[in-house]
Amino acid sequence: MKSILDNRPALAKQVNDVAEVAGYLWQKGWAERNGGNITINITDLIDDEIKNMKPISDVIQIGRQLPNLKGRYFFCKGTNKRMRDLARWPMENGSVIRILDDCSSYVIIADNPVKPTSELASHLSMHNYLIGRGSTYKAAVHTHPIDLVAMTHNPAFLEKDVLTNLLWSMIPETRAFCPRGLGIIPYKMPSSFELADATIKELEEYDVVMWEKHGVCSVGEDVMEAFDMIDTLSKSAQIYLTAKSMGFEPTGTTQEQMKELKEAFNLPK
């Protein structure tokens, strides 16, 4: 069967990177059953042949108008599809969609009529926001890191920037590689527009957002960068939880030491 990836090495690399990250999410235990989702904006890799491809699905409504997405293309993990399967067979467990001119609906164009993730409205809302502010970010990753989700069950960690400063203080790399910290969103219904809107608001200040008792959403230049930020935050959470399990409160780096890191790496916060 002919694939949209055939003879398109740049597009194939993007999809293969998604598959690689999907494998990492599964291996880490962050993607139970069909948990988590990934979308990437592939519009800049689309040629005239793809633009002329006929839909392989009916028109599907997004549920809201997203004016910055007119004519844009995305690769999306499929709904009810498992990350472990996306890792092995990305085009059988994901699809390429085209946003229609009404900016409120889409069609699937390749390779199979796999309906995108149930969190598509949240993801497309994030992409719409990123494009609108002129961001070069192309990827959004949502997953369920055990350690970070566990920490959201403590109300003290839900206060603004409490987790940011705690996780920054566990290891210098977190301060350097997650320089905008971790936003917090109180529990909201998964797949809801309420959750999408709350996430967009947090993205004004953060690149990684924690959904209380649910999971983490990260945006970045590409899928690897989005994954790396979650992975780095998870390492800090593991250091904290390991110290606590050994019976002591970790001291963490001081505010002065973090200020030195900020200046040394020219960090934004």
Q: What's this entry about, in short?
A:
The protein is an alpha+beta fold. The protein contains ten helices and nine strands.
Topology:
Layout: H1 9-27, E1 37-41, H2 48-51, E2 60-61, E3 73-77, H3 83-88, E4 94-99, E5 105-110, H4 120-132, E6 139-143, H5 146-151, H6 162-168, H7 172-177, E7 182-185, H8 193-203, E8 208-211, E9 215-220, H9 223-245, H10 255-265
Helix pairs in contact: 4-8
Structure, described:
- There is one protein chain.
- With 269 residues, the protein is an alpha+beta fold.
- It has two domains: 1-142, Class II aldolase/adducin N-terminal domain (L-fuculose-1-phosphate Aldolase, 3-Layer(aba) Sandwich), CATH 3.40.225; 145-269, L-fuculose-1-phosphate Aldolase (3-Layer(aba) Sandwich), CATH 3.40.225.10.
- It has ten helices and nine strands.
- The N and C termini lie far apart (49 Å).
Please name the CATH topology of the largest domain: L-fuculose-1-phosphate Aldolase
Biggest sheet strand line-up? 2-5-4-3-1-6-9-8-7
Strand percentage lies at 15-25%
CATH superfamily of the largest domain, by name, is: Class II aldolase/adducin N-terminal domain
Short key terms for the protein model shown above:
269 residues; L-fuculose-1-phosphate Aldolase; 10 helices; alpha+beta
